[in-house]
Amino acid sequence: MTTGEKIAEKGAAAGKPLAEFQFPSPEVTKCPYPFYEALRSEAPVYKYPDRNDFLISRREDILFVLRQPDIFSNRTYLADEWAPGAERRAELELKPPGGVLETSFGLTSSDPPEHSVKRRALRSLINPRYIHSCEETLRRLANELIDGFQSRGSVELRGEFADPLAMLTICELAGFDPNDREIFLSWHRIGTGHGRRFLSAEQLAEQSKDQPEQQAYCERIIQDRLANPRDDFLTEVIQAQIERDGEINLPYLIGEIRLILTAGNETTSRLITNVMKLLIEHPDQLAKVVADRDLVPNAIDEALRYECPTQWTSRLVMQDTEIGGVAVPKGAFVLMLYGSANRDDTWTDPDKFDIERPSVRELNMAFGGGIHRCLGSPIALAEGRIALEVMLDRLKNPRFAPGHEEERENIDNFQKRVPKKLFIEFDTP
Ligand code: HEM
Predict the structure, then answer these.
(1) Is 207 inside a domain boundary?
(2) Ligand 1 atom at minimum distance from 369 CA
(3) Is residue 205 part of a domain?
(4) Mean pLDDT in consecutive groups of 10 residues from the start of the chain, 429 residues
(5) Closest C-alpha to 419, from 199, 197, 292, 271
(6) 57, 96, 141, 402: which could form a disulfide with 340 (CB 3.0–4.6 Å)?
(7) Is 348 a member of any domain?
């Protein structure tokens, strides 16, 4: 790739030294790739000034972290200033008979051996045969959403297609009531705990404002399934927990149900929005996938690599250690920059969006790695593939609607990659 092409892809900050970047900052949120490149070339394990945080930007170092959950813990709340310390920490010391540390904290905030118990409890959601059996329904849902706007020849793709499709998919697979989708969509988009360390008190309050309503909603689901068991995933998870532990653990179940309701939603919506944006930005790649539908799965993988929907997650360091030769003390946080690993020198021409790139799925860090690797990746991949196939079938000659450049910029969140809005036009039949 020439310098000119690189600047076109990565913006004017391409090649800027690390010292000239601020993180977080609107510049990095808008386009993080020049910052990541500066990190990788100057300080791949970078101590964030005045904070006990380290940014890890190379794939190899991130895998080193992900493979050692005993040193790099997911119980990041242990060091959160806002967590009510004493009681929650005391809860961690509880060791019920059977030897498994049992807490009300959910899968994403657990370490082994507890983590494997909690992960097993959700596995039936991603049974390949089950996902396959839902594919025709997902295709129908995608087509119905497009029926709602196709005659207009234009759409705001994120709000009118990607968001509701992701929501309806999780309703279909897990057993949430699709009639409640307006409630789910009205909730403030939830930030993950990992990103909270960088939010102001105001932003935190804003992010958490719907939490009581969400918890009450999940509790209602649990009570309903207890009173009226059904042949669905939610009933199965609730009954399995009671059978396993001898009594209901309401805070845990509320947390896991809320996780399923939210984890796969926003992320997959971001993927669907990003892949269309990228294809419009790269007409040669769009032409290729229009001509050869067998490229659809690879286009999805490449979109995940190129614009990682979740740019990073974090771990709490449980003992003094070293990463890539840099000393990292106990109590520090490490931020694993998946969006950077997906553009490091593992890849040939990493800043090129190339839907024919080989081995993307195997090397991609978009779903994380190790024991916490995204549980829902088979759902996300199936949903992304179906969404793209239906969009290519029905939205002919897609292009950006004139204006709206500012809305195509990234949302105001440096952990998530997705345009604020994506207004597109297409030919009507
Ligand atoms: C494009 C879509 C998606 C992306 C980019 C994505 C990304 C990720 C990432 C990076 C992690 C690892 C977090 C960490 O290491 O700390 C993760 C974990 C997880 N994801 Fe996804 N995800 C997507 C879709 C889904 C879907 C559809 C579901 C299912 C409903 C889901 C459920 C989960 C769960 C339950 C975990 C926690 C796993 C654990 O802690 O063991 N995700 N996801």
Answers:
(1) yes
(2) 15
(3) yes
(4) 52 80 90 97 94 94 96 80 46 42 74 88 90 93 97 97 94 89 71 62 74 89 95 92 88 89 88 98 98 98 97 91 95 94 97 96 96 96 98 98 94 91 95
(5) 271
(6) 57
(7) no
